[in-house]
Specification:
Strand content: 5-15%
CATH architecture of the largest domain: 3-Layer(aba) Sandwich
Number of helices: 8
Number of domains: 2
Order of helices and strands: EHHHHHEHEHEHEE
Bound molecules: 1,6-di-O-phosphono-beta-D-glucopyranose, magnesium ion
Radius of gyration: 17 Å
Shape: globular
CATH topology of the largest domain: Rossmann fold
Length: about 210
Amino acid sequence: MKQLFIFDMDGVLTETSEQHYLAWKETALKIGIEINRELNEKLKGISRMASLSTILEHGNKLNAYSEQEKESLATKKNRLYQEMITHFTKDNLFEGVEELFIKIKSKGAKIAIGSASKNAPMLIQNMGIEKYIDYVVDPDEVKNGKPAPDIFLKASEVLGVKVDDCVGIEDAEAGIEAIKAAGMLAVGIGKRDILSGADILLNHVKEMIDMID
Ligand code: B16
Ligand code: MG
């Protein structure tokens, strides 16, 4: 059995991709850019500033804003997003997550969170799962975001677990790419057309419970 389970947050443990999408949609509309759910798939797993660049490129406005203006747009999006997740509680955890965490811990394995989101610590606290988690990667402490392997490698280094003994769990294409680049087993949660690089594909994170013996 694997010794370290590195979970992505958004789209794996809870459904925040809708909130990220709505907050970006509103922010982008204010500068005349319309985004749809297809574009949102590309924003999953990538950092706030990388998401903004993708949106600006989509609207042919990649070079239309100064760094300061871009920071201000990203801050506006984050405020909208935080308003939407501030009332998150245990009820927002996907079904089976707590049971899965308890099972992993009962086998003596470790749990880390490898999210690109700077809001992950707030969500972890709001949803009451900090007691199960051995380490949360701070995306500001690694050089490159997903699809680079840095976030996943950081968790394995800090917790002292070889990459062969790690599994990463992701809902985004960039995340699966990052796990594979780290040399770890990749579990994809979602659709095959988006997550074709995953070693194991599941519809829902709760399906992992029966895979651990
Ligand atoms: P924030 P994950 C990612 O989280 C989201 O999927 C992505 O859409 C978002 O842009 C990124 O976090 C950064 O989030 O603006 O809160 O720092 O899927 O890696 O858990
Ligand atoms: Mg995700």
